[in-house]
Amino acid sequence: MKITFQGHSCFSIKSDSGSIIIDPFLTGNPQATIDPSDVEVDAVLVTHGHADHIGDAIEIATANRVQIIAPFELVNYCIAKGAEGHHMHIGGAYDFDFGRIKLTIAHHGSTVEGEGAVGNPCGFLVTMDGKTAYHAGDTGLFSDMALIGDTNSIDIAMLPIGDNFTMGMDDAVRAVEMLKPKVVIPMHYNTFEVIEQDPEEFKEMLRGAATHVRILAPGESIDI
Ligand code: NI
Ligand code: MN
Question: How far is the CA of 177 from the centre of ligand 1 (A)?
């Protein structure tokens, strides 16, 4: 499993069985290193409707002729905009050709600008080639992360640290303690002034912990 960071909360994940992109906020993302028209994937996963997450999802899914995988109401919105979609909801998992996706809770909102609410936000557990990645989406800390950690062997977790809209670093450390991933990648920071953080500080806070903190620069990848 190869995970590439595209800044903010956007990651592409590639394995022998296929490739996906999560929260493809590329247009208008100052950290993005690729153009949406260059993205080739088997599915587009979206955690919630906010512009910094849905981003270029509809364009990418349409150009690749692949489905958008997201909570039910958000998929309805995407279908209304001309994309194809696979409806899912919190707690549900499905085996796709490229791997298994399970939706987790996320404590946050989910609106599309000018459209209003599009259901609940989510996080994703992605299992491909025997490896499991957890993308928390936008969320505050919640104690059910202990349940997620107990019921899944998480190889790599992508957690927000930006504060203001999501968990900050203190809470992200608590999240790591509950999720027990082998590796954690911080996300959702430094894109905007209000979420400026020093990820090295997060790394320092987890020094000596069983979980390894890996800070990815935009465009950088990790193989697990
Ligand atoms: Ni959001
Ligand atoms: Mn966000």
Answer: 23
Determine the distance separating the centroid of ligand 1 and the alpha carbon of 208, expressed in angstroms. Answer: 31
Beta carbons within 10 angstroms of residue 116's beta carbon: 9
pLDDT tens digit sequence for 82-100: 999 999 999 999 999 999 9
The pLDDT tens digits for 124-142 are: 999 999 999 999 999 999 9
Low-confidence residues in the chain, pLDDT < 70 = none
DSSP 8-state secondary structure symbol assigned to residue 37: G
Each residue of 63-94: b (16+ CB within 10 Å) or e? ebebbbbbbbbbbebbeebebebebbebeeee
CATH superfamily of 2-217: Ribonuclease Z/Hydroxyacylglutathione hydrolase-like (3.60.15.10)
Ligand 1 midpoint to CA 48 (Å): 7
